[in-house]
Amino acid sequence: MRIEIAGLTKTYRGGVAALDGLDLTVPTGMFGLLGANGAGKTTLMRILAGIARPTAGRVTVGGHDIATAPGRTAVQRELGYLPQDLGVYPDLTARQFLDYVALLKGLDDRPARRRRVGELLEVVALTEHADRRLRGFSGGMRQRVGIAQALLADPQLLIVDEPTAGLDPEERIRFRNLLSQSAGRRTVLLSTHIVDDIAQTCREVAVLAKGRLTFRGTVAELTRRAEGRVWSVVTAGPPPPEGTVVSALPHEDGMRYRIVAQRAPGSQAKPLEPSLEDGYLSLSG
Fold this sequence. Notes:
Blueprint: E1 3-12, E2 16-26, E3 29-34, H1 41-48, E4 56-61, E5 64-65, H2 69-77, E6 79-82, H3 94-104, H4 110-123, H5 139-151, E7 157-161, H6 169-183, E8 187-192, H7 195-201, E9 204-209, E10 212-218, H8 219-224, E11 230-235, E12 244-251, E13 254-260, E14 270-271, H9 276-284
């Protein structure tokens, strides 16, 4: 489902603008939305899901105008949503919780509903834990239940907001793979502040900062923004004052710093190939 956003503004009480005249087009497939905490990502997700209303602007999803009640209803029928904080019933098992959510989504045929729940428990690798109570699940396991509930009605639009925050490396990799496998013919909008999640799953990305669009293009194009601006500096003293230190690793001669800077931070600086994180830092200054 193609998403088209024009002049989208959301202003909260006190005049705080979470979104400020945002223009953005999101095609079918896996799409990344990158930005620091407070950039406006969650507000945009809530508007697309029909939970929040914009102050101004126009949003169409699959040709449906979400400013209208029929438009919001049409989009929500095709929507799977995993919010930043998914509330679960801790005394229910994973199977019971998914069965309950499936009922809420209108899956009334009991045998078909049970089959769908079983299929998704297998997809998210929770079949052997299906009858455990959710209170005993780890954060990663709860997130897998979350993606399962979002996929119950086989949505054409899947929105996931900060899905890997707080997960250990193994669970993050597992979850990223689940998202990539879920894309196919649907639109998957991944909102995160974790650059590596975008690098490993998305071809196209948009960057938000203070409610405004600062970049829209491919991951490769964003990476190239840092070409000629990434340096390695080895020193026994403090890092050079120029630029942004991306990493610092112990070295036999002191510390090795990876630095993003407009020019070489010292005569001993050596150029490096940029990463997506370097491109993002170069963009944000």
